[in-house]
């Protein structure tokens, strides 16, 4: 009864407020809450963004978000693999609590998520592009998503339309362009009297890195610099680093290397593809490379295709930023750019992700919010994808949900890092056995050290990131590091308890533990 009364009071006050706005003129908007445009690509390494100092490419449009906003140099993920990162971003919970611990799981769409909360708060919500959580999106007024990974060309996309809860429409064109076209369509037809929360999510530059028609021959006449650790022999680490199956040397397929064309191209697309790759493949066959030369060739082939895919993402994000400028929406729209996780661009001889090593543990994050975020600012506080949901909710003026495990970093965006902000991050990767054979591990990283436990094989690693930023040599067995080891182990145990991780996947069943002692 009290609740009903409270509701009536609020409803009356809102009514009076909206009458007031109507009285003072049509141009006054009742709702000044910011729009939230969440742009996410898939597997985009921070090493391939010029705002992060890329040695290998230029990303002028994406750089705009950093130069007009804030770049985060320490944004970490909870579990570096596609689906689990998406589930964490939506729920604000670690994998063991949202139930999506590895690709192939089914996301429990009945649980709370940030889109549902923003929608309930009066936001118009949409997700367009890659979803990759098996079950259909929940919490969105509109969704139009790829099916599973989705192809790079001519993607079938699933949407709810009219009476049909899941209609599949095949779109012709390059997927990065198609997703952007649909996004611009939605922005044009959305409701003007509600703020929006839009998740615009690219498939690119996910494996197997198929460039769009515009960039099939970009980089053909240049040599991309190699990372220093391309020929890592893994001798300084525990056995899992040697046992993985994600090397450029041995684990790229003919399809990855474009020695065979992709299926599903139209005649026109196929002709463009053959014109670009035919001469390149002939040159390779004639060279008959072996050993180190072959690895170097594979690296060039892999990284160039990857960067070509990034170039299309950059172009397309530019189209959306231009739209925001032209319509005046830019002024009151928070624009976020991130990737679902980080990625190896040949570092340690690898492609792919999964590890708690820096390249895959960290993900790019740039955020622009005119008038609120200092343009060109750079931040190195430890933030996480776990925090995104709560940050968006606070920006929208919504309360912090008790069940979410992150922290809003809105104060950091405004240049005010809280005194008690977190100084360590917890990580847990599960997908073994699985693609690329990376052993399960959990660990903790603080400002200087990283402790990793491969708990199924009983091995540990400890890295001193000040002395060894490339993580080439574990110091776990060195006597001088005993005090550090003890301290990091205590911190690991504290965080495992704090986040309620006892290796049990609880998913939708149990309530999560209490929060609020760990920034
Ligand atoms: Ca991914």
Report what the structure shows.
By secondary structure, this protein is of the alpha/beta class. It is built from 13 helices and 16 strands. The chain has helices at residues 2-24, 60-67, 82-91, 95-98, 114-120, 175-189, 240-243, 267-287, 291-327, 358-361, 388-395, 410-413, 482-498; strands at residues 35-41, 70-72, 75-76, 124-129, 142-146, 156-161, 164-170, 196-201, 333-339, 365-368, 377-379, 383-384, 424-429, 441-446, 449-454, 459-464. The strands form three sheets. Strands 7-6-5-4-8-1-9-10-2-11 form a ten-stranded mixed beta sheet, sandwiched between helices. β14 (441-446) and β15 (449-454) form a beta hairpin. The longest helix has 37 residues, at 291-327. It starts with a helix and ends in a 21-residue tail after the last helix. The structure holds calcium ion. Calcium ion (CA) is lined by residues 42-43, 82, 206, 340-341.
